[in-house]
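REVIEWER CHECKLIST
Item 1: Sequence provided? yes
Item 2: Single chain? yes
Item 3: Sequence as submitted:
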Amino acid sequence: MIKFFRKIRQKMLAENKFSKYLLYAIGEILLVMIGILLALQVNNWNENRKLRINEISALKEVRRNVDQNIIRLKSFSENDSRLINTGKKLITIFKDENSIYNDSINTMFGLVGTYDPYYAIDGAYENLKQKGLNLIQDDDLKQVLIELFEQSLPNLEQAGNAFEYEVSKRKNDMAISYFETGRTFFSMRPNNFNELKNNQEFFNFLTWAMAAKKLTISHRKNSLDETNKAKYLLEKYLEEIDK
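Item 4: Structure as written out by the authors:
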């Protein structure tokens, strides 16, 4: 092709057709420029396509993390609710002057103040951060994921787990003082049930542990709501771009 254009130029110069040669040269330059622009456009298209493929792949992995966190948060919330109900039953028993001891109460004592820490699943999000969060082209989705994985879930881990640990620590103190040794936390037999019923320190612990668990439930519910929001935006965005 280059030899073909060179022959045309040489022929025009030989025939002393300078004006035509000038027009031809300008046209040739424009043709080359158009070719370069087209090549750049194709290259940009290929690069954008690669970025979009990487974005889709990364977000699908993040969606798996989101789904896993939703399942775990729901499971934790259900367990928290059972612990709350157990605590309420114990408080009712303690307030009833006519209540008597039976072995089933051991399990109830064991459940109250159970240490139940939550750790978020965020491996895919951390991988995405290494690639660069700018890979996500939707700013709203990007912000929601940042708030979820860098604020909501970490706060649930740090503050919530610290609170749960404090409850468990105080439960251990109660176990040493008022329950038989050599038993697990899941089945605690009181040294003297009737005396324990009238023990203000243990009753205060019982009510405080319930209040703490309710606060934990509230935090986990907020995190679950934010995780569900992230799931909705993720699925909506992936439907738009993964076609």
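Item 5: Key structural point noted by reviewer: The chain has one domain: 59-241.
Item 6: Recommendation: ____
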